[in-house]
Amino acid sequence: MIIFVTIVACCVHQSWSWFDKDSDCDGQSYDSRVETCCENILWAGATPYDECCGVQVFDSRKYMCCDGELYSKRERKEC
What we know:
Blueprint: E1 8-11, E2 14-17, E3 23-25, E4 28-30, E5 35-38, E6 41-44, E7 50-53, E8 56-59, E9 63-66, E10 69-72
Antiparallel strand pairs: 1-2, 3-4, 5-6, 7-8, 9-10
């Protein structure tokens, strides 16, 4: 007997399959809507504000990346 199971999540008026993979991170497929790849390191829980600073993921609303270092936007306005 063969059983096929489809897992679907629904959030914020949008549904998608857990198996929808659209990107590649060091040979591992991932969904960029919910994960971020920074220099071949995969991070879970992506948001539209996530950016990479080296291998770290950060919230670009609160931090900035300057020469591979993270700085609070409250303390520093430009690189």
